Amino acid sequence: MIRPVELIERKRDGGELRAQELEELMLGYARGEIPDYQLAAFCMAVFFRGLTSAETYALMEAMIKTGETVDLRSALGRKVVDKHSTGGVGDKTSIAVGPIVAACGVPFAKMSGRGLGHTGGTLDKLESIPGFRVELSTDELIAQVQAAGMAIVGATADLVPADKRLYALRDVTATVDNYSLIAASIMSKKIAGGAEAIVLDVKVGDGAFMKSEADARMLAQTMLELGRDAGREVVCLLTDMDQPLGRAVGNALEIREAIATLRGEGPPDFVELVLAAGTRLLMVSDLGLDEPDARTRVLQALADGSAVEAYERWVHAQGGDPDEAALPTAPLVRELPAPRAGYIAEIGAVRVGQAALHLGAGRQTKDDEIDHAVGVVCLCKRGDRVAEGEPLCEIHARSEEGAASAARELEAAYVLADEPPAESPVVLDVLA
Amino acid sequence: MIRPVELIERKRDGGELRAQELEELMLGYARGEIPDYQLAAFCMAVFFRGLTSAETYALMEAMIKTGETVDLRSALGRKVVDKHSTGGVGDKTSIAVGPIVAACGVPFAKMSGRGLGHTGGTLDKLESIPGFRVELSTDELIAQVQAAGMAIVGATADLVPADKRLYALRDVTATVDNYSLIAASIMSKKIAGGAEAIVLDVKVGDGAFMKSEADARMLAQTMLELGRDAGREVVCLLTDMDQPLGRAVGNALEIREAIATLRGEGPPDFVELVLAAGTRLLMVSDLGLDEPDARTRVLQALADGSAVEAYERWVHAQGGDPDEAALPTAPLVRELPAPRAGYIAEIGAVRVGQAALHLGAGRQTKDDEIDHAVGVVCLCKRGDRVAEGEPLCEIHARSEEGAASAARELEAAYVLADEPPAESPVVLDVLA
Asked: Does A45 touch chain B (CB under 8 A)?
């Protein structure tokens, strides 16, 4: 039996841990035999010393072994694809991409999480759809993917339980920001969840975990290696999170934007990301398409209405009402006027996320209730030219006080300039 | 109210914490409102980033504020002196120095701890004296110092409770080895305990916390500053812990050696340290002696029998039987013969400490019972010349198996050479 204090000390002093040691550490932790305080010290030592590639892989495998795994290949007889984002502001990509991929005949299954702080969670967004059930058993998940072509569900408690406990611990001990720990956490769930091919969207910028492109590349590279070593196909998109993605930030507002995008009416930056992610998902699927063919199929699914149909089939299968009119709306909508004429040089993603959070769209602590109707719609985006008094964004609020307070936060988020900012794409790079 | 995770993050990123923040952290921890895992992450961040002088002082003050303090000056109307060692193998200095100082008319009061691992604790040693009570109330402590001139007691639960909890946590999270945390821990107890003048014995070498003289100097300097900033007089002795101190290692054996030393029959290295510590204690006492006068008074107390009388008065006052014959003895005494002729080049202090520990003289875990009779007597010390087969040490054991096992450990502790080692003093330096 390992002595956890010796492992902590070795990592603290820059040494390497063996796979067997990391496995005992994680299994002991998941069983409650190794206390939180030893893992907290361990994670802080990892923050300073890092993990080698071998250690990161061993940690991921160890976390997977603390719970159950799903074998979608055996259950469905098909290669199932998954898409995961490291989290940002206004990121409703999976909700649009899933139906596109399903419309193209590729099974899509995703286990997702909830939001905390300024980044929203896909499950929270989906729960703004009346009747939508995010908690499906593994059997229900498989049956739904067979019948409706796709599913997005909450991870069951049995999937990587060590990660759940460890993530909550890292969140309160300032040990989140380490790319080995982030990569092992994300990839353990993806691999335990059974997807064979995964498109990862690694966000970089103000509103993302990874503030610099160098850090984002390091995280992407680490996840690529983990996936490959586990025998999965992985592609990483490096994407911009310096401004909110698309226009809508807030749960029901984002569902509306996803539906609009499936109808071919999405905002340009979001459409760019949806096309890139959809194309990559078809390329790693068992259709075996090359990039031009995959892109053509994605565009076709958007143009011929099959993507919207796939969305309706999916939401319906998961108990929800796919009608846009069924989504909740906020009692008040207020506009924020531009204080002067000029070009929009910046829209601080964190500030917009915080404004939505304070309106009630997110959670400040785990137990907060979410207001699905509220949020922000960025009518203007980076690079747009505005006249003085022209509305920069809409604030969807529960009260006038809430709207006024959000307006102050949003004013600080928008930076206006006389010259247009340099153009920058949403998809910064693709690593495969 | 502070958010602990923000303080952890700031320290992790190399920032500085304010006194008020450290106070809230410690008070919240002592009240059980801030959990162990946040302090574990904090201590590991401190391990890597260190604490500034101001932070170290604030941490010490914050720890003191979590409990009660004793004001010996008001209670006794005298300046009370105290002596503290950072811990080593065979360190029975306080048990000899206390009576010397008391014999010179200077009140001596010390709150002490128990041993864990290869270093023994003064309280454990004293408990080998039949009847000796280490748990005195503050009123009993004061009354005894008034009546018998001195007391050595266990710290009450109310004295720096945050330190007790934090030390236990650091012990299992590999965050002991940081001189700011060590210094704040030691000095918080000394200052809360009420001594106005303190002689600190900072051990350096194989058997000590601080393996290098540079580290020991850093720790000594930190403690000197903390003491002065708190308005106490502090002197640090830097002393050798590369071999056991004196000959005896083990509880009753060490009490016997302390008594022998008070009779003027102590081993040279131990006598050197006792004289140095006694002299410094008289110099910082309200007698206001200079070094030559203080040394003369110490030698006088040893020569005229008053130190032995002070020992007997003290032990008696604290409920113990001062008669050496009352101390427990081990059923077996076995000698370890020198494997060859030569000079003793080294006696590994940790190895001797471990041998005594495994004989039963110490605790491997907090709940272990101690065997007060067993231990090791190093008949020969570093620099001695031995003939082949001449006994290097005595093993005082409970069983033949125990003695044989200890013999193997002790064989590895002794290093013999053809040339005598360079002479080195016990007291390496005095910092004041």
From this structure: yes
Structure tokens of B188?
A: 């918080």
**% of chain B surpassing 70 pLDDT:** 99
Can you give the pLDDT at residue B115? 67
Mutate which of B7, B37, B365 to test chain A, going by most A C-beta atoms within 10 A?
Answer: B37
Q: Rounded to a whole number, what is the distance in Å from the CA of B26 to chain A's nearest CA?
A: 16
CA torsion sign, B288 to B293 to B297 to B302? Answer: positive
Cα B36 to Cα B42: distance, rounded to the nearest angstrom: 10
Over residues A151-166, the mean pLDDT reads 90
Least confident of A317-321, B14-18, B111-115, B355-359: B111-115
What is the DSSP secondary structure assignment for residue A326, as one 8-state letter?
G
The interaxial angle of helices A36-49 and A161-171, nearest 10 deg, is: 70
Write the ipTM. Answer: 0.86
Rounded CA-CA distance A429/B138 in Å is 70
Instruction: Write the DSSP assignment of B199-267 as a string of letters.
Output: EEEEEESTTSSB-SHHHHHHHHHHHHHHHHHTT-EEEEEEEE-SS-SSSEESHHHHHHHHHHHHTT---
What's the rounded Cα separation, in Å, for the pair A363 and A342? 34
Longest Cα separation, chain B: 69
Q: What is the pLDDT of residues B119-166, one digit of tens each?
A: 778 999 999 999 999 999 999 999 999 999 999 999 887 899 999 899
| pTM greater than the 0.90 cutoff | no
Distance from chain centroid for Cα A245? 12
Radius of gyration of chain A (CA): 21
Q: Are A78 and A107 in contact (CB under 8 A)?
A: yes
- Token readout for A396 is 């969807």
Give yes or no for a contact between B232 and B375, defined as CB atoms under 8 angstroms apart: no
Distance from CA of B358 to the nearest CA of A (A): 19
Stated length of chain B: 432
- Per-residue pLDDT tens digits for A284-340: 999 989 999 999 999 999 999 999 999 999 999 999 999 999 999 999 999 999 999
pLDDT average, residue stretch A147-169:
91
Contact predicate A335/A395, CB 8 Å = yes
Residue A169 in contact with partner chain B when CB distance is under 8 A: yes
Q: Where are the alpha helices (DSSP H) in A248-381?
A: 251-262, 268-284, 291-303, 306-317, 349-356
Count the neighbouring beta carbons within 10 Å of the beta carbon of residue A400: 11
Q: Give the closest residue to B111 by CA, choosing from B139, B83, B92, B87.
A: B83
Q: Which one, of A422, A268, A253, lies nearest residue A344 by Cα?
A: A422
